[in-house]
Amino acid sequence: MQQLFHENYEHNRKGYIQDLHNSKIHAAITLHPNKRPAYQYRLHNYMLSRKISELRYRTIQLHRESALMSKLSNSEVSKEDQQLGVMPSFNHFQPRERDEVIEWEFLTGKLLYSASENQPPRQSINNILRTALDDTVLQVMEMINENAKSRGRLIDFKEIQYGYRRVDPMHGVEYILDLLLLYKRHKGRKLTVPVRRHAYLQQLFSKPFFRETEELDVNSLVESINSDTQSFSFISNSLKILSSFQGAREMGGHNEKKIHILVPLIGRYDIFSRFMENFENTCLIPNQNVKLVIILFSKDSGQDSNKHIELIQEYQNNYPKAEMTLIPMEGEFSRGLGLEMGSSQFDNDTLLLFCDVDLIFRGDFLQRCRDNTVQGQQVYYPIIFSQYDPKVTNGGNPPTDDDFVFSKKTGFWRDYGYGITCIYKSDLLGAGGFDTSIQGWGLEDVDLYNKVILSGLRPFRSQEVGVVHIFHPVHCDPNLDPKQYKMCLGSKASTFASAMQLAELWLEKHLGVRYNRTLS
């Protein structure tokens, strides 16, 4: 009776039910109290989504029945029934080559482990996957307990011990879950026993209900938007934001927010010279609205920085209207201290770009830095493509001239890197700024990222195709803090080559045969 008439009198909730997606809510015939219109709309929306899921599942069942009847009557099975009417199986897709094998992801109660090269090897289970797992387990438990009363037993879910998950793009999501359950017998002699069961599940895709059948002419659409015609007046402002990405390279520059590019540096003159050459082509010649600030660290007398100063002076002579500043600093290199010093030169409404000398970038990246950074709300953390060692990836052949080649062989997305940042000065101060006590390589970016999240700002992360981190040998100082040293070694190991190519090199070296990927 208590479960049928569900009452929610939690303190200060006033009828708000945080988790509608549980078996108690599904079994109830009334929910009390439920008097606020906003909560009623939320509940109604959830019940409609449940109804949609049930109808989608019913369509899958009908497609299966239709396919079965077509086979029994020796009639042709429709294409739709062939795709949607297949019975659950993990063997729908038959790979013909090794590269076509769909990999499984391993998961525990809190963590997800992935072998995919575009994902971190270990990460916390995000909210989307957590919701999907909870929904899957809920449906499994409802099926198990469907006839619990007549069987005189009830089975409760405790936790997922471990599991595997993968997505078949043509069919659906597949799970293998090791479930810890609690078996409760209430007929005869009462008994409560913990049990473990494996569940092999497939969540099939149903029929798509929306499909775009007409090809859009993007150029004519953008022209119509930019013309501010009445027919597009209701969407032109929002779509102009998207169309600006396409025209970022052709934009003049002085009609946009000025970006202050901060680059901390010590030594590495050749790398700095390459950075300035890229800066000239990307910013100085097109007259981009930017200001470059070099924070130059030097040890002892500072004689090692004279060449850097002369190079900056040469560019200032060639481009007298360009804004370029060099801030000299003495002592041990500290990226956080350098960026803190550089940002202190500007007012609170300044848009800052924390950059590294190892990067090369294009003009479209600067436009996305402006567009994706919202003062008081959002900080842009681009995910940078980092090159592998060209000596390994090219097999001794000379490297290509184009550094903007994105493939699994040439490099990887640095998902765990937070050093490149677009942020307003006021937001940097509000988050607490850099920890200037951190010396040497790394860790200051992760510290600031955590502060940004805790301050209530929204970090915006996305793969950035306008920036490439050029490969350079990594030297890890054993005198670093143990946590920094471990991070440095991990970063160094990730830059040699992809795991696939390293494995092939190992096989070639130790087995004496060349492993041909295309024939395997």
Report on the structure:
This protein is of the alpha/beta class and 520 residues long. The chain has 4 domains: 5-66; 98-204, no CATH class; 216-246, no CATH class; 256-507, Spore Coat Polysaccharide Biosynthesis Protein SpsA, Chain A, CATH 3.90.550.10. Helix content is 35%, strand content 23%. It is built from 16 helices and 17 strands. The strands form 4 sheets. It has a 6-stranded antiparallel beta sheet with strand order 5-4-3-6-7-8. Strands 11-10-9-12-16 form a 5-stranded mixed beta sheet, sandwiched between helices. Strands 13-17-14-15 form a 4-stranded mixed beta sheet. The protein is elongated and about 90 Å long. The chain starts with a strand and ends in a 9-residue tail after the last helix.
Put the structure in a nutshell.
With 520 residues, the protein is α/β, with parallel strands linked by helices. Helix content is 35%, strand content 23%. Helix 7 packs antiparallel against helix 11 (363-371) and helix 13 (425-431) packs across helix 14 (444-454).
First-last Cα distance: 62 Å
- Number of DSSP helices? 16
**Rg calculated over all Cα atoms:** 29 Å
Report the CATH topology name of the largest domain: Spore Coat Polysaccharide Biosynthesis Protein SpsA, Chain A
The fraction of residues assigned to DSSP E strands is 15-25%
Please state how the strands of the largest beta sheet are arranged side by side. Answer: 5-4-3-6-7-8
Helix share bin: 25-40%
Number of strands: 17
Give the integer mean of the pLDDT values: 80
By CATH, the architecture of the largest domain is named: Alpha-Beta Complex
Overall structural class, as computed from helix and strand content, comes to: alpha/beta
Largest sheet: 6 strands, antiparallel
What's the overall geometry?
Answer: elongated
* Stretches with pLDDT under 50, minimum 5 residues: 228-241, 243-255
Q: How many distinct folded domains?
A: 4
Tell me the CATH superfamily of the largest domain: Spore Coat Polysaccharide Biosynthesis Protein SpsA, Chain A
CATH class of the largest domain: Alpha Beta
